[in-house]
Design brief:
With about 170 residues, this protein is mainly alpha-helical. The chain has six helices and two strands, in the order ααααββαα.
Length: about 170
């Protein structure tokens, strides 16, 4: 059993796992192309917007001391790789929802979530919206790939290195 100060805060743990579920659901219900104008994927929009809100909540919780110090057995190279991997995930968790929001704004699709009208962040166009839709799709794929690597490294730490890494973020 880990000491309490070696675990992430309950807030960070909840945000982490809720974000992971939202990313997977958003990916599974995603649609692209001209179908979005005719039949907007509201669940996809809601998940993406929730991820964007949660990543900022997570950054605030992290700054407020919600993250424990790195595992003592991790050397400087692994610690640096972990920082880069986390930074890349945070960047994608912000960039992908923003590019999606921009893309649907360019499509002229109104976004109504939980009774709120989310304002457009770009002017609507009648033709192609430009490369932003492709960038959004590539970013969504990159999140899943990077999150998969993140999970694999966590499992490797837990079972090969036996340093209790997964226990630090376990909701149980």
């Amino acid at each position: 059993m880990l000491p309490k100060n070696a675990r992430y805060s309950n807030t960070m743990i909840a945000i982490h796992w809720f974000t992971a579920v939202l990313v997977v659901v958003a990916y599974l219900v995603s649609e692209g192309g001209r179908h979005v104008r005719a039949n907007p994927p509201v669940l996809h929009f809601a998940c993406g917007f929730a991820v964007l809100v949660l990543v900022f909540a997570r950054l605030i919780a992290r700054a407020a001391g919600g993250a424990p110090p790195p595992v003592a057995s991790v050397g400087p190279a692994l610690a640096r790789a972990a920082k880069l991997g986390h930074a890349a995930l945070y960047l994608l968790l912000i960039a992908v929802p923003l590019t999606g929001w921009y893309a649907v704004s360019r499509l002229g699709v109104p976004i109504d979530l939980w009774g709120l009208r989310i304002p457009a962040i770009a002017a609507a166009v009648h033709g192609r919206i430009g490369p932003i839709g492709e960038i959004h799709q590539i970013g969504g794929n990159a999140i899943l790939i990077l999150a998969g690597l993140h999970a694999a490294v966590g499992v490797w730490h837990q079972f090969a290195r036996r340093d209790h890494t997964l226990e630090r973020m376990s909701p149980f």
